[in-house]
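Researcher: We plan to redesign the surface later, but first we want a full-length starting point. Tokens attached.
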């Protein structure tokens, strides 16, 4: 994989709560220089001038514990302000309760608020789930009409992406959905491991350092 190919798999991400408008503008400018696919920002920072890049915004972030109608409103507002992709967090507590009907309906509410052609990525927080729960979370996302399943917010104390989780997610959704690896990916070797396991998109804040390893 060459530098340009890898760059086009990257959602160049800035989700620190203290990020300023100047920080977001710098992220976009750097993303253009790096040739990334998109930038991923907090919804309160919309609208932005994407300078030709795709724009993703998070939803129900980072806990996922918001009411479904709040997530739906947040997603609709982000789309109205120019986001083309929504990265939502599942109701993690419902997942741990085994209430997969609630998990699915929560995702479906956001899907209805951000219909195609908007891209919906569903963050399952894989490090906080068992393998069986990862499979059920992916199946819930697929049933609710998601386009991607995504490993992590990068904010959960349980950790971020793992090769094992990415491979299991890919095995579960096949080619029907795509897989985004995000959280703790800071080296080229790790990024390529995630791609090898089945990730088609990478959520990175260390994009410049990782791409620099490819020259």
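Model: Full-length starting sequence:
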């Amino acid at each position: 994989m060459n530098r340009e190919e890898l760059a086009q798999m990257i959602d160049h991400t800035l989700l620190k709560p203290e990020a300023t408008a100047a920080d977001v503008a710098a992220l976009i400018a750097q993303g253009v220089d790096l040739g990334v696919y998109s930038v991923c920002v907090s919804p309160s920072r919309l609208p932005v001038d994407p300078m030709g890049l795709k724009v993703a915004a998070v939803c129900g972030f980072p806990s996922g514990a918001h009411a479904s109608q709040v997530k739906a409103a947040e997603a609709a507002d982000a789309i109205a302000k120019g986001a083309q992709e929504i990265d939502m967090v599942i109701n993690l507590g419902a997942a741990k309760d085994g209430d997969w009907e609630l998990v699915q309906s929560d995702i479906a509410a956001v899907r209805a608020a951000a219909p195609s052609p908007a891209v919906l990525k569903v963050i399952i927080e894989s490090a906080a789930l068992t393998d069986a729960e990862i499979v059920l979370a992916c199946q819930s996302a697929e049933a609710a009409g998601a386009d991607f399943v995504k490993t992590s917010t990068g904010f959960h104390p349980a950790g971020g992406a793992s090769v094992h989780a990415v491979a299991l997610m890919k095995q579960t959704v096949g080619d029907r959905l795509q897989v985004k690896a995000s959280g703790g990916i800071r080296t080229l070797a790790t990024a390529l491991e995630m791609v090898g396991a089945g990730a088609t998109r990478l959520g990175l804040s260390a994009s410049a350092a990782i791409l620099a390893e490819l020259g």
